[in-house]
Amino acid sequence: MNTTQTIVLASGNAGKLREFNDLLAGLGFNVKPQSDYQVPEAIEDGLTFVENAIIKARNACKHSGLPSISDDSGIEVDALKGAPGIYSARYSGVNATDQNNNAALLEALKEIPAHERTARYQCVLVFMQHALDPTPIICQGSWEGTILTQPQGDGGFGYDPIFWVPSHNVASAQLSKVEKSKISHRAKALTELVQKLKTTCHYPTKLTNLT
Fold this sequence. Notes:
Mean pLDDT: 90
Radius of gyration: 17 Å
Number of domains: 1
Low-confidence stretches: 201-211
Distance between the termini: 17 Å
Number of strands: 7
Shape: globular
Strand order of the largest sheet: 2-1-3-4-5-6-7
């Protein structure tokens, strides 16, 4: 029996796609980008990570006809009252680059002392069987750290070069993919998602065989 479950990732972010496939490798999931199915971008007009994740997952299901997983994530900085938050991907403007967003955040924090630069990555994952799924699986993971005063490392994506990980004494961008996949906000949310898929009886039986 074919045990591969194709899931559409409701994102065009190449970094996220790599992370999902790395984290789900060997678990029977085949994660495809929504661009493979000509899925148009969803209008993310929610006010929370959860709302936007549901919007994106439903949009991908509707246009692909396949189960979908969506990820709405961002970084919250305490000194900025939780900003950039849901606007992390476009913090420095429409079509912002990671470098521009990092520069904008560093500028916003330039007068903030080190002990007040606490922050965390947040990730909300939503899995939907179809566009009308009344009980989407919702998972959340967070990752505590602080914001540096200048970028360090060249790995990862997003705010990784300026996100300091105290437990490992490096910037997120300096972690190996293997190490990041064990401790990141997305890894935590994905671990929860896999466990829920394995124990939710109305999902395909083959998912309960995952180890």
